[in-house]
Write a structure and sequence with these properties.
140 residues, mainly alpha, 6 helices, globular
């Protein structure tokens, strides 16, 4: 992904997270998601792929913010807000959990070890919060 193909949103987020190079991780995650779930292309098209890329940069922005604040709750609050927004747009909570799990898999060895360990922990907490939310809101 070169800078020309990146939205102004992605460019701004990259500036906000500074020297944290998450581009290769985001690229792998988005490619994996669209390979695993071809319906995403059918349902959301190119705009959807662009939003998915932006969303993944936002995930890292909030991970980075939580890291700087040393506050897991900052990320968990973001996760719960994100879930409400994406579910209202027709995405399932399972997709957000899947997305976070793919970030975890693809970031191993790609970041500073201390940052990686913290991000993995925040993602674990976010996934747990989503699973608890999902369980509490299933009416079956």
């Amino acid at each position: 992904m070169n800078n020309h193909s990146q939205s102004s949103t992605v460019q701004k987020i990259k500036a906000d997270i500074g020297d944290l190079d998450v581009g290769p991780i985001v690229e792998k995650v988005v490619i994996t998601m669209y390979n695993d779930f071809p319906f995403l292309d059918e349902k959301f098209g190119d705009k959807g792929r662009e939003r998915t890329i932006e969303d993944n940069y936002y995930h890292f922005l909030y991970l980075h913010t939580a890291y700087k604040l040393n506050d897991t709750q900052t990320f968990v609050d973001y996760v719960m807000w994100l879930n409400s927004v994406l579910v209202s747009r027709g995405l399932k909570t399972e997709m957000i959990i899947y997305n976070f799990e793919k970030i975890q898999e693809n970031m191993i060895g790609m970041l500073d070890k201390e940052v990686e360990v913290s991000f993995l922990s925040y993602l674990d907490e976010g996934i747990l919060a989503l699973k608890e939310y999902k369980q509490a809101n299933e009416s079956e």
